[in-house]
Structure formats: structure tokens, C-alpha cells
Amino acid sequence: MLVFKKREKVQRHVIITRQAADGIITWSKTHHPNEAILILQGRNTRDAVIVDGLVIPPFAQSGPFFSGFSVHDLPYTIPNVGTAHSHPGGSNRPSLEDLNHFSGYVSIIISHPYEDENIGAYDRSGNSLEIKIVDSV
């Protein structure tokens, strides 16, 4: 007889390097008052999404209330774990539009005034994930 063991639910979190976090902050400040978008590079483990690089998506478009890019323009060799984008309006919570266009394992959203404490991370369902900014991974 087979016995199925119930998997313990793991609280997932995001580990991001200081260099990647600073890149998100700088890119967002550069594009203000428009939204800015980046692709997150890294890897996914059972309990964490590890972000250690950023890619500027080719042919990205943005405005005061939107940002996006075509996934068909991306090279297949990018180890994509999600996206990061800014919300100039002040809230780092994902909108319905953000959730409908979710890509990867995590969505990082930074709100104005674009500092560490304004960074939020979310899963595909819009649940908040803990963020740890580290010097290196």
C-alpha cells in the first residue's frame, strides 16, 4: 500500500543582491514619472527565489500607468525568474493588470520614492513575499 506524505508548506521568500536592488532603484528613478520594467535573472529553489542580475528588456514600452515588453523579443538563454517594475503613484501592491501579466516566479514592485523600504515582492496570486537584500549569493 502506498502512503502519500503531505508536503509541508514552505514559506517562500526572495533573496536579492544589493547590486540588483540598487539597479532596480536607479532604473526606476531614471524613468520617473513613467513606470520602468526589468527582467530578473537568477534561480528558483524550493523555498526561495534568488535574484542576482537584471536585464533591460528589448523594445520595452512604458508610460505613467503601464510598462511592458514582448516575451517574443527575448533570447531563450536568459535565466528569467520574474520581472521588476515601478509604480510612480506610491503603492507597491500589484494591480489586477500586474497579476494578469505575471511572468516567472516573482514580481518585484517598487514605488516612489524608490528606496529599499519601497520594494515589495509577490507571487503569482498576489501574496506578499519576504525580501532579503544581501551583499552576494
Automatic annotation (TrEMBL):
A molecular-function term among this protein's GO annotations: metal ion binding
Keywords: Hydrolase, Metal-binding, Metalloprotease, Protease, Zinc
Organism domain of life: Archaea
Presence of keyword Zinc: yes
Keyword field contains Zinc: yes
Pfam families tied to this protein: Prok-JAB
GO aspect biological process, one term: proteolysis
SUPFAM superfamilies: JAB1/MPN domain
Protein name: Putative Mov34/MPN/PAD-1 family protein
Organism whose genome encodes this protein: Nitrososphaera gargensis (strain Ga9.2)
